[in-house]
Amino acid sequence: MKTLALLGGPKAVTLPLKSSVVIDDDERRLVNEVLDRGELSRFMGSPTPGIEDVLVMPSAAAENYSPQYFTFLGGRMVRRFEAEAARYFGVKYMVSANSATSCLSMALAAAGIGPGDEVITTCMSFNATAMSVLMFNSIPVFVDVSADNFCLDPEAVARAITPRTKAILVVHLLGFPADMEAIMAIADRRRLVVIEDCAQAPGTKSNGRYVGTIGQAGVFSLQETKNFQTGEGGLLATNDPAIARKARLIRNHGESVPDASWDDEDLANVVGFNFRMTELTAAFGVGQMGKLSENNRVRADNARYLTKALAAIPGLRPVPFKPDWVPHILPMLYDAEATGVPRALVLRALREEGVPVGSGYTRLMHENPLFVRQVAYGRHGCPWKCAGEGYTAPAHPCPTAEDLLRHRFIWFYHINRPNGLAEMEQVVEAFLKVFSSLEELKNCPQGEVALGYKW
Ligand SMILES: Cc1ncc(COP(=O)(O)O)c(C=O)c1O
Q1: Within 6 Å (CB) of ligand 1, which residues are found?
Q2: What is the rounded average pLDDT of the residues 288-315?
Q3: pLDDT tens, position by position, 202-255
């Protein structure tokens, strides 16, 4: 076996691992269509005749609706993108926005979640999940994950319910589906709203249904690293006309639409944001929509290949995906006791071989200063302090997530198209090289290995 790259040997991975955007003539043609038309947005944020019907128009109908030059539902490409995404996922409404974070906030607010309401969510996700709860002054309550799918542990959810709990914000992390059967059963019993954060799981199914279409609303991210992408952007999926109506209002200066006849209930949570998607972004999105299935197939093939090829390595367990789950990142579980080498050093050695691996999020969501100090708005600590005299936010332990993040996770990112078998073979070679050189790694003088990196 060759010398480790960390110790001056040649890198195992010589092919460049490519990031996940595949752009071809589809996107170029669609973007040019928008440029040729010279229509860059066409959203109009004020009332039009028949606005009540427009607000609940299914995405398929909205695609062909264009009574005026400007519309409350946006330009032609935005409505086409929403209609195509709605058909793909089999929902009545798709509401696009400038990010998944905006979509999550819209979904929660549109479902009636507001100030002082508790929203139970996972302690392990990208920060945007928890931040979206704060937008309408609700309070995220963090609970632990299950060791087998890294998503909300239904028993921990059930234990965390209080009289203030109004919603469960599920995250389908890395492409693994949460246990939706158990979570929906809890939500139904306790009359809670379920919003699904599917930023990392477009195409994953849970019991034959796309995640994002099981709760009251689901959200997909179109940010640059995701399975389909527009650089930035998000989609909110729902079959509920009331949620679609309010989400469309929130996205588009909602407060300017209602007139004096709207009652207070209608107005609650309709705050005037501009979360709109541009026509250029939507054009790119239409092109990407056509690539989602192929992108997902390649991710699954690459993950399956790596899972099989790395399965026999002692001290490392790649976590397998079922056939109808779409991997976003391939997680592996590391066992430092079995190898006798700290995870940080193995990660360093793999990176030196040319494999971009990470150990997951730098911290759990509730460990961010905002949540530790419980100050989000103003100097006095809203939304926590604004939740009423004597209110204390519930805190729950997250031992499984802590163990995964601090000791066990090794994440491999580049399972995305256009990387294929040739790249994956080199990645396997790098893993075999590092794991068969553990003795050499162990003998690295502490603190002197790898570019002054101390472990
Ligand atoms: C689980 C999760 N939720 C939400 C988001 C936020 O998505 P966006 O960047 O589109 O707002 C991300 C993005 O990385 C994510 O991974």
Answers
A1: 99-101, 125-126, 128-129, 171, 197, 199-200, 221, 223, 234
A2: 98
A3: 999 999 999 999 999 999 999 999 999 999 999 999 999 999 999 999 999 998
| Residue among 134, 173, 133 at smallest CA distance from 152 | 173
Nearest to 150 by CA among 130, 185, 169, 124: 124
Q: Provide DSSP, 385-416.
A: GGG-TT--------HHHHHIIIIIEEEE---S
State whether the Cα torsion 263-266-269-272 is positive or negative.
negative
Helices 100-110 and 241-251: angle between axes, nearest 10 degrees: 130
Query: What is the enclosing helix (H) or strand (E) of 180?
Result: helix 180-190
- pLDDT, one tens digit per residue, over 350-408 is 999 999 999 999 999 999 999 999 999 988 899 999 999 999 999 999 999 999 999 99
Residue 211 is classified by DSSP as T
The residue among 310, 322, 304 whose CA lies nearest residue 175 is 322
The catalytically annotated residue of 226, 246, 291, 433 is 226
Residue to probe by mutation, ligand 1, list 102, 121, 173, 200, most atoms within 8 Å of CB: 200
Beta strands in 211-322 (DSSP E): 217-221, 234-238, 316-318
How distant, in Å, are the alpha carbons of 8, 404, 415, 434, 449 from that of 347? 16, 15, 17, 9, 12
* Structural domains of the chain in order of their starting residue, each with its CATH number: 25-291 (3.40.640.10)
DSSP state of 223: B
**Rounded Cα distance, 67 and 334, in Å:** 59
8 A C-beta contact, residue 139 and residue 163: no
Tens-digit pLDDT profile for residues 77-90: 999 999 999 999 99
Contact 237, 211 (CB under 8 A): no
Measure the CA dihedral 201/203/205/210, to 10°.
100
pLDDT at 452 over 50: no
Q: Give start and end residues of each alpha helix (H) in 290-335.
A: 292-310
Neighbours of 16 (CB within 10 A): 10
Q: What is residue 241's predicted lDDT score, i.e. its pLDDT?
A: 98
Residue 368 one-letter amino acid = N
